[in-house]
Amino acid sequence: MTAREMGPWDESEVDFSEGLERLDLGGLLVLATPGVDVQVQADQATGVVTALTFAQSGAAVQVQPYAAPKSGGMWDEVRGQIKGSITKSGGLVEEVAGPFGVELQSQVTGADGAMQPARFAGIEGPRWFVRAVFLGAAVKAGEAATTLEGMVRNLVVVRGGDAMAVGAPIPMKLPNAPAAPAALPDGRPILAPFVRGPELTETR
Fold first, then answer.
1. Where are the domains of the chain?
2. Does the pLDDT value for residue 132 go beyond 60?
3. I need a labelling partner for 181 at 20 to 30 A (CA). Which of 37, 58, 136, 140 fits?
4. How far apart are CA 110 and CA 97, in angstroms?
5. Which residues pair with 42 in a beta bridge?
6. Which CATH fold would you assign to the domain 9-203?
């Protein structure tokens, strides 16, 4: 299992009295980082949020949370699937040691047909798994990578106690979606979306 001594965190591991302002997107709570835009990808037909992208000039990381088995090992399986998919589509991929453990460094075909670099990371927590795909300048070590890796490490995953199939996406929502609880089940408050900091944009 990938070590995550520096995050991302399970909701049970976070002291919500610390006063940090987080954007409530359902399955993920996002900490504000100046200069980083938070983009929400939603299915046009259903309005269901499918992924988040943290972006700054020339760099981005897309994150998606999934339900995982208690025993862990999901990243090993997913990593094999990603490698197979990239190779089948004519891309290049290799396993490397990265900030989140074993990662995939790859060259994939972009929307314009040209090859572009991408770095895949997988982080496992208590019954959850987060896949992160770094793009642009965030693929290689540097300031952009450090900033966006920090966004990933500061995520709080709200898995919930409901039974979920392994690999099922953990539900996310837009920050202004109705029926958002004012508090977690144990009474801890959900902090309001931040006013200053990242710009939230919805893409469909």
1. 9-203
2. yes
3. 37
4. 24
5. 49
6. Protein Transport Mog1p; Chain A (3.40.1000)
